[in-house]
């Protein structure tokens, strides 16, 4: 039975992320807030309390019981997960890479089973996990593999929603990664989850071109002619409301954006700089296509701020609020 059905409030799992980063103290910073959900922190309990203290927060934790509601604000359930070695704020240690993956795996298993209604993730450090000899491309790929499904990364800042056709790839690898099959799947997932989660009955999706000026009729590249336009035309025949391919340099002009419910960018740095300029600090990363809701912050581990008590919890708070909304 889904957690919300049992408790009448969504139960949200929050993962603490990289222990040397700001994730643990961000969880502490939001712990006293009033949210229309039961919160379950997944991380090392001792570390969470220590970092909350650095943020001048008193964190009251009690062991998670899947059969009971969490209780009042300020009293947080925790799934205590051991560290590989004690963590120092700002100091990455590859021996804690497995700890990070353990907390993500516990969250994924709980969401798959219905124990949690949504997952909210604090930032992880991909580099130190790979340095530990574990291939890891990020949260999005991790949850997709665990769930056995295709997913789409989308960032949300107020009404601006930007999804990605490709994610963490070198720029040189992007053109080959944009295929008719992949783009078709991405657009179908984006369309379906805008309807399912955001209650947009007929989403209007702007599709960007890959090349400057959307290829300018083939004079600046053929990906628009060979791949992007045929996919758009095929899916329009299935009833999807797609606009494009559009030049990326003009698609984000406010008078154009007001006519779109979402924008599909072809690669990471085509769409996300605009979104982060518009909403950094309160933007939210949403993974579409999963059988459960997953949101995340729009920033990294900020090792230079870890343990200082100065990290801004605005994006984590926004991610939690959106997760509650979508789970409800």
Q: Care to describe what's here?
A:
Strands 3-4-2-1-5-12-11-6-7-10-8-9 form a 12-stranded mixed β-sheet, with helices on both faces. It has 2 domains: 1-148 and 292-328, Isopropylmalate Dehydrogenase (3-Layer(aba) Sandwich), CATH 3.40.718.10; 150-289, Isopropylmalate Dehydrogenase (3-Layer(aba) Sandwich). Strand 1, helix 2 (23-30) and strand 2 form a beta-alpha-beta unit. The protein has helices at residues 3-7, 23-30, 45-54, 97-113, 126-131, 139-147, 174-177, 180-196, 223-237, 248-251, 254-257, 268-279, 314-327; strands spanning 11-15, 38-43, 60-63, 75-80, 118-121, 152-157, 160-164, 204-208, 241-246, 262-265, 284-288, 293-296. It contains 13 helices and 12 strands. With 328 residues, the chain is α/β, with parallel strands linked by helices.
Short description:
The protein is globular, with a radius of gyration of 20 Å. The protein has a 12-stranded mixed β-sheet with strand order 3-4-2-1-5-12-11-6-7-10-8-9, sandwiched between helices.
Please name the defining characteristics of this protein.
328 residues, Isopropylmalate Dehydrogenase, twelve-stranded mixed sheet, 18% strand
Query: Tally the helices: what do you get?
Result: 13
What is the CATH superfamily label of the largest domain? Isopropylmalate Dehydrogenase
CATH architecture of the largest domain: 3-Layer(aba) Sandwich
Record the strand order, biggest sheet.
Answer: 3-4-2-1-5-12-11-6-7-10-8-9
Number of strands: 12
Helix content: 25-40%
Top CATH class of the largest domain = Alpha Beta
What is the CATH fold-level name of the largest domain? Isopropylmalate Dehydrogenase
- What's the domain count? 2
Give the rounded overall mean pLDDT: 92
Q: Kindly provide the radius of gyration, computed on alpha-carbon positions and rounded to a whole number of angstroms.
A: 20 Å
Biggest sheet: strands, sense, closure?
12 strands, mixed
Strand-residue proportion: 15-25%
Order of helices and strands: HEHEHEEHEHHEEHHEHEHHEHEEH
Global structural class: alpha/beta
For the record, give the distance between the C-alpha atoms at the N and C termini, rounded to a whole number. Answer: 15 Å
């Amino acid at each position: 039975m889904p957690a919300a059905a049992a408790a009448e409030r969504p139960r949200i799992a929050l993962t603490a992320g990289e222990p040397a980063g700001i994730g643990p103290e961000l969880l502490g910073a939001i712990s006293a807030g009033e949210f229309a959900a039961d919160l379950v922190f997944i991380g090392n309990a001792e570390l969470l309390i220590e970092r909350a203290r650095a943020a001048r927060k008193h964190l009251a934790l009690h062991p998670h019981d899947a059969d009971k509601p969490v209780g009042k604000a300020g009293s947080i359930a925790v799934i205590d997960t051991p560290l590989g070695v004690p963590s120092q704020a700002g100091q990455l240690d590859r021996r804690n890479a497995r700890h990070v993956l353990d907390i993500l795996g516990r969250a994924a298993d709980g969401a798959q089973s219905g124990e949690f209604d949504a997952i909210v993730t604090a930032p992880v450090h991909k580099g130190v996990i790979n340095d530990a000899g574990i291939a890891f491309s990020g949260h999005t790929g991790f949850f997709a593999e665990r769930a056995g499904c295709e997913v789409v990364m989308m960032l949300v800042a107020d009404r601006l929603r930007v999804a990605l056709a490709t994610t963490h790839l070198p720029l040189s690898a992007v053109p080959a990664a944009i295929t008719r099959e992949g783009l078709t799947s991405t657009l179908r997932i984006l369309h379906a989850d805008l309807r399912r989660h955001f209650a947009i009955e007929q989403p209007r999706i702007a599709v960007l071109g890959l090349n400057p000026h959307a290829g300018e009729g083939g004079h600046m590249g053929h990906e628009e002619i060979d791949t992007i336009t045929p996919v758009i035309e095929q899916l329009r025949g299935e009833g999807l409301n797609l606009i494009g391919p559009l030049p990326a340099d003009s698609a984000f002009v406010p008078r154009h954006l007001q006519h779109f419910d979402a924008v599909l960018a072809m690669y990471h740095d085509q769409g996300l700089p605009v979104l982060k300029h518009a909403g950094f600090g309160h933007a939210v990363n949403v993974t579409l296509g999963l059988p459960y809701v997953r949101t995340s912050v729009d920033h990294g581990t900020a090792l230079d701020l870890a343990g200082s008590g100065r990290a801004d919890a605005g994006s984590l708070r926004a991610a939690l609020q959106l997760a509650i909304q979508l789970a409800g």
